[in-house]
Structures are given as structure tokens and as C-alpha cells.
Amino acid sequence: MTNKITNTKLEAPGLDAFQCGALITNKHRNIIYANAYFSNELNWQVEKLIGKSSDDLFTFSSKIFIESYLMPLLLHEKKCDEIQLALLDGKNNRISIIVNAKMDDQGHIYWSLFNATKRDKLYEELIETRNKLEAQAKILQSMSVTDELTGLMNRREINLRAPELLNQAKRYVHTVALLMIDIDHFKEVNDSYGHLEGDRVLKELGLRLKTFGRQTDLIARFGGEEFIMLLPDTDASDARLFAERLHKLVSEIHVNCTPVTVSIGITMSDGSHSLEDLTKQADTALYKAKSNGRNRTEFDQTSIYTG
Ligand SMILES: Nc1nc2c(ncn2[C@@H]2O[C@H](COP(=O)(O)OP(=O)(O)OP(=O)(O)O)[C@@H](O)[C@H]2O)c(=O)[nH]1
């Protein structure tokens, strides 16, 4: 390339080997040089580009961006790095490009243009992959805290969430009721009607517990056919009433026209017990309910109030 740049067509054969577009415009922004990349990759005939305004190479929105951002930057800083614009190729296809530009004292602008289509595609793929991973992480997160069959929280999750609820009871001086609910003779359901029928009963019970409980209650499938409910701000007489309603609600579920029944063990706490202690106490009460004939509720003897 000659050192002295005039406003006429330039020759610079060395630049034709570059894998990017090289463009020089004069102070009127008319093209005085375009390398072979424009004909090889962008479907322009270089001859036809000479004399054209560089504006003609860009989409409408990119032109606005050039006027409002690129030109003021070039006038003040004399250079502009890595801006993304949309160029129209010789067949009027929109091509995403990264532009670096430099302006000399005579107002010539030296543009280098890198095709960003592949990079855009890579970014799109990366974004898509990230979205997929986020969605998978959400599913995994929900699976790790949820019992798959009933949709209730699992044992691990209630173990994590119970301490906060018990602490609140202590702080705000109210009582908490823990109900251990166990389906009666559930083995017979499985043995007589099959595992799928057993699963249906578990699902129906889970659904009823969920809709019956308040938003603040913690309800979990504790294992097998055993569920627990932790009811904040509930005294023993409320808990008894709650259990009575629960027995009625459960009897709406039928297996071969026979209502399903549950036994319930209840223990009360002022928030000073651990979940582990409370479940042991409720388990003792549940055992009593089973021994006393099932389909009934018993309170644990150590409860602060036994109704
Ligand atoms: N269908 C089904 N059955 C389950 C699941 N988890 C545990 N079970 C069954 O639940 C039954 C529990 O039986 P048991 O512990 O003897 O209790 P039960 O028959 O309900 O007797 P009581 O509790 O004494 O009234 C077993 O047959 C387990 O196989 C499950 O996810 N789906």
C-alpha cells in the first residue's frame, strides 16, 4: 500500500490474504479500498464498492449506531475497539460482524471487519446449554427435596426445615404439634390389590394432607406409609380437632369400597425439642394408637398437654 493516501482507489495486494475484511474510507466516508475478503466472503464486487458510502454496507440500525456512537468515538478517541454491527453482504444477507476502526488526521477510517456469525452461534449454543443446565439443576434440586410419589417434601427436607419452625415456636412462645400418620393394614392393600393400588392410596393421602394443611405447616412423607405433619402455633386441643378431621378426610379414600384408615400419634412441643426427639415421642403415641385398635389418635404422655 502506498504511504500517502489519496481519495482515489488504493491498491494493497498484501491485505487480500487476510481472513477479515479490510476497508478504508475517506473523510466523506466513501470507500477507497476494500480487500479481497469482500469479494471472496461477502459477495461484493470490490470494484463496485469503490466510491460507495460505507454507510451502504450496514443495516439501518447499525447505521444509527455508527452515527450516534462509533463516529463520535472516532472523532474524539481516534479509535474504536470491538463493536458488533450488522453488515449487508452483496446479496443483501445480514452478517454479524465485529468492527475495529481507527481514524487518521485526514479523516480516513481504517476498518477491520471480523465475521461474528460463528461466534454468535457459539454464544447462542452456550446460552442454550446454560438454560438447559439451569432447568436440569432446578429439577434435581426439586427431586432432592421432594418425595417422587406424593410430591410432598421428603424426610431429608423436613429434617432441614423443622429446626427453624421449632426455633420460631420458642421465640414467639407458641406450641407446635407433631402428628405421625400411618396407614392401617397397608401391607394388605399391597398384598391383595397390588403395589400400584398401594401407590394410588399413598398419592391420594399425600394430596389430601397437602390441601388440608396450612401454608405454614410442614408436611412430609417420612417413609413407606408413614407421614408427618408439623403444625406451628397449634395447641393440643387444636391438634386433636385437626386429627379428627383428618380421620374423616382419609376415610374418603377407598380400596375396593372399603374406606382407608390411619392411626395418628401426636406429640406437643414448646420448640425446645429436636425433631428427632419429637418423632420418637410421636412414634410411641402412634404405637399406642395401633395397639388400641387403629383408626384413632393418641397423644404421647410426655406432651406438655395431652388433651
Ligand atoms: N405400594 C407401596 N407400598 C409401600 C411403599 N413403601 C412401603 N410400602 C409397603 O407398606 C407396607 C407396610 O407394611 P407394615 O409395616 O406391615 O404396616 P401395615 O400393613 O400398614 O400394618 P399396620 O401399620 O400395623 O397397620 C409394606 O407392605 C411395604 O411394602 C410404596 O412406596 N408403595
UniProtKB/TrEMBL annotation:
InterPro entries: Diguanylate_Cyclase, GGDEF_dom, Nucleotide_cyclase, PAS-like_dom_sf, Rev_trsase/Diguanyl_cyclase. GO terms for molecular function: diguanylate cyclase activity. Its cofactor is Mg(2+). Its EC number is 2.7.7.65. It comes from the Bacteria. Residues 174-302 form the GGDEF domain. One of its GO terms (biological process) is negative regulation of bacterial-type flagellum-dependent cell motility. One of its GO terms (cellular component) is plasma membrane. Pfam families: GGDEF (PF00990). It catalyses: 2 GTP = 3',3'-c-di-GMP + 2 diphosphate. CDD domains: GGDEF. This is diguanylate cyclase. It comes from Paraglaciecola arctica BSs20135.
